[in-house]
């Protein structure tokens, strides 16, 4: 009954304000330094512990971090300051499925297919990968307490600040250089596997290269913890000596940082085998199923299919599943594609990954400017990251930093500002509606 009244009050094309969910993972910066903490405080009105880590701000329908619909007032909506409404977005959508649009409901039912996040990263996240749908279903069936759902989790990270990550395996040429210049890796994987790497050439074909890479990486990640600790101690000592004679490479500097964060962790050595990626604000990185990665530092917008499945194997105090991770990876080599976005109007860039579930728009409005978001056949979530302005559909809403709004399918939206505004929109991939 309550949700029916809310639906009637909002009406077709009306925006619904949401209160998101915060995650206090230990890799987040303390509240006094965390963008996530600031956004969460603005969004919810809740107290922020200045010393506690604030890592992720979630917007969506996933059961591990649901968003809540904020109850209406005289104008149909409320700013959410200090108020908690117990109606989840998931339940509201289930009672009002038309807000998703017919094609979306036919494909994904009444659950939002995307999960929208802001991340603040102070130290490295785990070396991890996300399973494809078949593996996710099996893992969830076997270990439901660890793998929370049966969905895949392709994702995209869009940098808000300079953002650092490890992503995908380095090229064959770089791998050969690593085994020649990092004796600690050779000590753990053995000379036979090292020789296999050095003997590879482009004529051997991708499959042979993948098998050799898988053998080396699996042996490395499976090494005895005590031996790993000894070898990493040698590595750190050697790098400090090298630093007296020459400037360390970027990767060597990253490795030293990782070792301070996660002493004696095999992920410190594994970092040599992964691409080091630095994104500038407005650049994005997408990650398909079964691709290894680890975020290292910075703030980003993250969007993914609605899932929380993560297979971890290094740089983490959490559950590790080395066997599953090493068996599931694609072992694709080479530097990942960086998405720069496509302009859809003078103030909006769109980032379209090769997945149906989502796309992300980045809207940067200077003073005294306006941007249009034409109606689409699926739902959207808007998140205000900086500034203030108005967002107009059937009503004009004043919006500020931290505001989150759900827009039903087939809603025309105009965003305006007098002083400057930065917001992000996520919705179903545009290509899905063109099929």
Automatic annotation (TrEMBL):
Protein's UniProt keywords contain Isomerase: yes
Pathway(s) this gene product operates in, as recorded in its UniProt entry: Nucleotide-sugar biosynthesis; GDP-alpha-D-mannose biosynthesis; alpha-D-mannose 1-phosphate from D-fructose 6-phosphate: step 1/2
Alphabetical UniProt keywords: Isomerase, Metal-binding, Zinc
UniProt EC number: 5.3.1.8
Record field: catalytic activity: D-mannose 6-phosphate = D-fructose 6-phosphate
Keyword Metal-binding: yes
Domain Phosphomannose isomerase type I helical insertion, first and last residues per copy: 197-274
Cofactor stoichiometry and binding remark: Binds 1 zinc ion per subunit.
Record NCBIfam families: manA
Name under which the protein is recorded: mannose-6-phosphate isomerase
């Amino acid at each position: 009954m309550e949700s029916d009244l809310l639906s009637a009050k909002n009406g077709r094309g009306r925006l619904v304000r949401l209160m998101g969910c915060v995650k206090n993972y230990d890799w987040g910066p303390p509240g006094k330094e965390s963008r996530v903490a600031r956004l969460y405080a603005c969004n919810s009105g809740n107290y922020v512990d200045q010393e506690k880590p604030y890592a992720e701000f979630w917007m969506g329908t996933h059961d591990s971090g649901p968003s809540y619909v904020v109850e209406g007032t005289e104008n149909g909506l409320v700013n959410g300051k200090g108020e908690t409404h117990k109606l989840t977005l998931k339940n509201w959508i289930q009672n009002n499925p038309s807000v998703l649009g017919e094609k979306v409901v036919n494909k994904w039912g009444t659950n939002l297919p995307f999960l929208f996040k802001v991340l603040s990263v102070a130290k490295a996240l785990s070396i991890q990968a996300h399973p494809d749908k078949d593996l996710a279903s099996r893992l969830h069936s076997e270990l439901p307490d660890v793998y929370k759902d049966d969905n895949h989790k392709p994702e995209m990270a869009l940098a808000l600040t300079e953002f650092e990550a490890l992503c995908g395996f380095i090229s064959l040429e770089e791998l050969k250089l690593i085994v020649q210049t990092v004796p600690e890796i050779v000590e753990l994987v053995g000379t036979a596997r090292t020789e296999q790497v050095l003997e590879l050439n482009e004529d051997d074909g991708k499959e042979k290269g993948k098998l050799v890479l898988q053998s080396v990486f699996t042996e490395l990640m499976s090494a005895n913890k005590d031996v790993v600790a000894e070898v990493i101690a040698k590595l750190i000592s050697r790098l400090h000596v090298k630093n007296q004679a020459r400037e360390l490479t970027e990767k060597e500097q990253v490795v030293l940082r990782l070792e301070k964060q996660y002493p004696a962790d095999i992920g410190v050595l594994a970092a040599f085998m992964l691409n080091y990626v630095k994104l500038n604000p407005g650049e994005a990185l997408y990650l398909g199923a079964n691709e290894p990665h680890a975020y290292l530092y910075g703030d980003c917008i993250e969007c993914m299919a609605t899932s929380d499945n993560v297979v971890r194997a290094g740089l983490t105090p959490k559950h590790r599943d080395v066997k599953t991770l090493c068996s599931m990876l694609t072992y694709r080599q080479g530097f990942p594609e960086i998405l720069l976005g496509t302009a859809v109007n003078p103030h909006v860039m769109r980032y379209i990954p090769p997945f149906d579930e989502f796309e992300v728009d980045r809207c940067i409005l200077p003073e005294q400017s306006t941007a249009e978001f034409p109606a689409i056949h699926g739902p959207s979530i808007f998140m205000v990251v900086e500034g203030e302005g108005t967002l107009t559909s059937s009503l004009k809403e004043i919006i500020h930093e931290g505001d989150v709004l759900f827009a039903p399918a087939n809603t025309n939206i105009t965003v305006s500002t007098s002083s400057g505004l930065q917001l992000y929109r996520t919705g179903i991939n545009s290509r899905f509606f063109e099929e």
